[in-house]
Structure formats: structure tokens, C-alpha cells
Amino acid sequence: MNTLYWLTDDLRLQDNPTLEAATKDTTLDFIFCIDDQLFRTDRFGNTRMGTQRWRLLRQSLLDLRCSLAECGQTLNLMRGNPREVFGRLLGSGQFDRVVRSRQHASREVADWRYVCDQFPRVSFDEYDSSTLYQLPSIQFGEVFPATFSQFRRSLDAVEFRPRVNKPKVLPGPSSFNFDGQGIEAPDDKSLITGGATSGMGHLQRYFRTRAASTYKETRNYLFGEHFSTGFSPWLALGCLSPTQVFEQLSLYEAAHGANESTRWILFELMWREFFRWHARHHGATLFEFSGIAGHRPLTTFYRERFLKWCSGDTPWQIVNACMNELRETGLLSNRGRQIVASCLVNELELDWRCGAGYFEETLLDYDPCSNWGNWQYIAGVGSDPRGGRHFNLEKQADNWDSDGRYRRRWAGTRKPGPLDSLDYYDWPQEPP
Description:
Layout: E1 2-7, H1 17-22, E2 27-34, H2 51-70, E3 75-79, H3 82-91, E4 97-101, H4 106-118, E5 123-127, H5 148-154, H6 196-208, H7 215-218, H8 232-237, H9 242-256, H10 260-282, H11 303-311, H12 317-329, H13 334-347, H14 352-362, H15 368-379, H16 393-400, H17 405-411
Parallel strand pairs: 1-2, 1-4, 2-3, 4-5
Helix pairs in contact: 3-4, 6-9, 9-10, 10-15, 12-13, 12-17, 14-15
């Protein structure tokens, strides 16, 4: 059987159920499609993939290409609309089967279904390579759990998928001429290097420290050494799997003991799991203004306010510091994300989708399911039974940056200006 492996968020050879399922085929060709739509701007002026995310993806692809080469295999990079790219490949009649890691966001699900419908004589198989659970275990019928707590409790007796080893031997590539794209190594420096090699190195280094034993106490910090686990950029691209993280966590607990903090790391993995299956169930409503709740929030789009939020030029120094860190590094703590999202929705009264789109462009660990699910949560159109979250920005600054170090580092000492440049009568605002 001649098989195409449609790579997505599974850029690794270790613990990859999709790869394991393809090892018995006659030939195996690896395809990663770089969708041109990722580099177009949306209605708010956001690009779906910014320069820092693009750098991390290139690093991850280059690492995978080296790993495949050691196994006598090739990574084929194609550029264009995935439906058209795979339509051309399968239209050649050279391939009998397509395998892929199961996707959960509506756009990727729709692309898969479209190609499946176009080629009914080709076998299409998806495998659960990016989640802790397998699809047969996540059967909630027509009603998906309304809250994370219900989701977690309903799975108490359900086992995680088994971890799989890297295949000892891979089938060779076919003789098909893919005429793919090359990819250049990024020449700029960054805090994080993409790829499974780097991701596994970070995972092992983290659990060699004792940070896991104090994670619950530090997880809300805005900065600091090992205040968070830092796994998410590699999880987002599938350079690490959640099963690999869980395995290392279990080894750590066996050596150093389990406590509330180590259990909280698993708790965070379960939140990621919830948002993945939540996205698959709700489909395109994850990206709609009225959200899964089905009601339109009382917000709009002030371009000036949005640009000030993006550039860290709001009246709130804690927000400015967070946005400056995000723009310059592609990183932002979980607490920081909640602060700036609450500000955009509540203080700036902006359409929550412009903020979600900006995070999509800038966050190194962007994952559509978690990102858009969390933004709906803050905006009050998602799964939050409290109907949205409004954070007191002054209190957040006092609680999590009481000495002002974070604000001085990322926002400096410049006094913030007014929120709007025009007053009620459209006259320019006087400087304070």
C-alpha cells in the first residue's frame, strides 16, 4: 500500500500513533503543507501566523527532516491550499491511503472531509496522536459536558491512550516526484528552539529540577525561572505529546512524591484535553462572535483602541507590560493572558475575536482549540458558567507584580496616555 502521511501537529517520531500505524505499508511519503492562508491578514489586520511562530515552525520542520533522514526518509514540503495540494497528489492515482493525526479545529476537520469526499477509493485514517484520550473513549453523544469539571469527572475511569515507541524501521519513500518547497534555517536568535529534539531536552531538564513540586504556587506568576512548565510551544506543534509529558510527570512523582502541585500539572493537561474535544464537538461556533453560548456580547471594534492594546500603549501599565512581552518574545504567562484579554473585552469594549486573532499571530504556543476556547471563556460566550470574567487590573498588578519589577522590565516608566485620541465631540484629547 502506498501511503501519504499528512503531517499537522505531530512533528515528532517518538510516541506517534499515526506513524506507528503506517509502518507496515509498502511505501510511505511524508507531506507537510504550508497553507498560504496562514500569511493573509484578517478583517482586524491580524496575520494568522506571525514571524515568530513561522520561525518556530521552520525550526521544528528542519529538526523533523533531520530525524527522518536518519531513517532513510524524506520530508516533502508543499505550499498552497491543502485541499488543492492533496487533490493534485491523490489525483495522480499513485496513492492508496492517507493517514493523519486527528484534528479538532473546524477548518482542519473540514479540509480532511473535503479531500475524503473527493477520493472515495482512497483509504483515509486518523489517529489520536495529539491527545491523552482516543476518540472511542470520548463519546458524549449529542451533549458535550457543559463545563471542564463535568468533562474531567466523566473521564475519571477512562484510561489514557498507551504510549508508543519510535518505529525501528520505516517504509521507504515512493518514486513520486513531489517537486516540493525548500526551507531555510532561521538566522535570528530566540528564547525557544523548535523541534522534537529541543522539546524533549526541555521536558527532561524541567523534571530534573524540583519545580514540579511547587508548580501550583508559581503558576500564576508573571515571570521567573521555572514559574511555568514551558511545555506548551512544543505541545502546540506536536514536537512533544501530552503522553510524553504525563510519563515524565509520573516518573518524577515516583522519585520525589506526588503533591497538589504535581497533580496540578496533570490538571493543566486535562484543560488542554477539554478544549480539544470541546472544539471538535462545537465546530465553527468556536470562531463565531456569539460563541457556543449563542448570544452576541455588547462589544464592537475601535481600531485605535485595538492598536494601542497591541502596541502596549493603554492607560494600564500591567497590560502594557504583558503586551510588550508578548510582541517581543511570543511568550506570555497564563495570568498575563487573562489580564490582557479581560482588558480588551471589558475596559476597551472590543470584539473578542480581534484579540483571539492577535494571539493566533503572536503566541509561540498557539493552539486554536485552547486559544479560542479561552477567549470565549473571558468574553462570556463560551463554556464558563459564570458568563465571562472581568479582572480588576489594579488588583491584578498588586497581587502579581507587587514590587513593580515586571512592569518596569516590560513597560518602563513612561506615564500612559489617554485611551482615546478624540473626546466625545471629536476634538483631540489634551495630554494629561
